Amino acid sequence: MPELPEIETITRGLDREVVGQTITKIEVVVPKMFVWNSLKESNLKGAKIMDVKRVAKMIVMNLSSDTSLVFHLKLTGQLIYLDADTRIAGGHPLPPLNLPVPNKTTHIIFTLKDAKGQIGHLYFNDLRKFGWVKFVPTDKINELTSVGEVGPDPFDKKWTLDEFKIRLGRRRGAVIKTLLMDQKFLAGVGNIYSDEALWLAKIHPKRAAGSLTNSEVEKLYHAIKESLLIGIKHKGASSSSFVNLGGEKGTFLTYANAYHHTGLPCKRCRTPIVRLKVGSRTAHFCPACQKAEK
DNA sequence: TTTCCTGTTAGTGT
DNA sequence: AACACTAACAGGAA
Which residue is closest, via its CA, to the C1' of C9? Predict the structure, then answer.
């Protein structure tokens, strides 16, 4: 699914709502989507949710049984929490996030109980079934390559401009857009926000990492953070609807400058935005502002 | 009706 | 090691 801002939005919503609740039941409709590793149902049932964190584009729920649930929504995953007076929904907008649950895209259902005994459900929906939930002992979480090998988070204090420069220096020949989306290089950036950051920094998506000038590297560093922050501010690109908590909806795409703007005028220079295959993904950029060569 | 496309990885081969 | 390519799957758009 979603990239860092969308996952951050869902994570914050869940952290506000499910921490302290106990998992009383799990129904796995599509077995391949729930990976038990060495654990059993007894490690899950009765466990209390201690916190909900984002790692790269994953959601990590730490449980009182010294275990963790790691969620990855990939392209079309959704997480929907529903109880008597709250609905938190985020992820891919199709099927619509306000569709009744469970529905035909619902593949995993957790039943939760709060301190007052009120029952809630957490539904993991995924149209294309690419997503997964991995259940692991908390102290073994880094053995998941998807967790252990991720690069720095763009909002981690350790990801400084110098660190970015050092990492770029190690991958001088890599195509910059592809590199930004490499989770081992930097955690959480995908197709939307790589387009947006490169547009902000006026860098052509196919430039070699090593060809960027110092000034461009600095602009890109700030552009990555800025585009992600704008995404978070607008609750991501996907419609994350917080029904009964304000009815907010993700509106980031309204604010996008390049992504999905093919043919529309560049907001800086009015030149139509162009699509281009970069690696096996589609880049959107302004051919006038974002020059191929320096 | 085809055919192509997709907000992402994992796995495989070079 | 770095890079390229594709499969996993379902539906919307052209």
Answer: A128
